[in-house]
Amino acid sequence: MTTNLTDDEGAFLVRIARRSIEEYLTKRVKIKPPIETPESLKVKRGVFVTLNSFIEGAKELRGCIGFPYPTHPLVEATIESAIEAAVGDPRFPPVTLKEMDSIVVEVSVLTKPELIVVSNPKELPKAIKIGIDGLIVERGFYKGLLLPQVPVEWNWDEEEFLSNACMKAGLTPDSWLLKDTRVYRFQAEIFEEEEPRGRIKRRILR
Q1: How far is CA 150 from CA 29, 37, 38, 135, 205, in A?
Q2: Cα Dmax for the chain
Q3: CA distance linking residue 133 with residue 13, whole number of Å
Q4: pLDDT for residue 55
Q5: CB of 162 within 8 A of CB of 137?
Q6: What is the C-alpha separation between 52 and 198, in angstroms, rounded?
Q7: Residues 22, 149: Cα–Cα separation, whole Å
């Protein structure tokens, strides 16, 4: 995957994500993109913001929401996703301002999803690279997305990744083998805090 963002641009997004959450939790307002936002971050890109509780060096998911497709300028999508990851993820209660002292912020900037075309669904695992690809599974009204870092964190192989993406969509684990199921792949540039409010680094999965 070609690198599109610099480390400074990635760090800018992580800082704006944290600031968006803390301003919203304090004042219940959504901040506007700063005037110093680089032009590269005004291009429409898909993005996800992930919040992880960080306790004694261990991370545990606390919220994750984003835009799979490039429908909004990247900086605006990051602000929106950060707030929603904090207060709108239905899997978790809303994050509190005090909690932000023990949460690390992660921003994943996505490439445009690409439909994986194979002659037989059984060939799908060979078309996926763990540590590189994220997945979107669609079947009818059902849709599920897993970021590239997820199978690495859970030590899944390609078939397990596909099965879990299906379950994320509300489907049975083997739905990726069905004819009308569509599987898309995408890549991500990932930037994260090393610790709450700490140094921001580019995350390398492989």
Answers
A1: 31, 29, 29, 10, 10
A2: 53
A3: 21
A4: 85
A5: yes
A6: 14
A7: 25
How far, in Å, CA of 77 to CA of 90, rounded?
Answer: 19
Domains in the chain: ranges and CATH: 7-111+189-203 (3.30.700.20), 114-186 (3.30.1490.150)
Instruction: Tell which residue, 156, 23, 39, 130, has the closest CA to residue 79.
Output: 23
β-bridge mates for residue 137, sequence order:
144, 183
Sheet containing strand 134-139, strands side by side: 114-115, 182-186, 134-139, 142-146
Q: What is the pLDDT of residue 95?
A: 98
- φ/ψ (deg, to 5) at 43: -75, 145
What is the spatial distance between Cα 96 and Cα 94, in angstroms, rounded to a whole number?
A: 6
Q: Which residues share a beta bridge with 73? A: 44
**Model confidence over 15-59: pLDDT tens digits?**
999 999 999 999 999 999 999 999 999 999 999 999 999 988 788
Where is average pLDDT lowest: 63-67, 78-82, 171-175, 202-206?
Answer: 202-206
Q: In 3D, which of 80, 77, 82 has the Cα closest to residue 42? A: 77
DSSP state of 44: B
Instruction: Give phi and psi for 79, each to the nearest 5.
Output: -60, -50
Q: First vs last Cα of the chain: how many Å apart?
A: 12
CB 49 within 8 A of CB 105: yes
Give SS3 for 35. coil
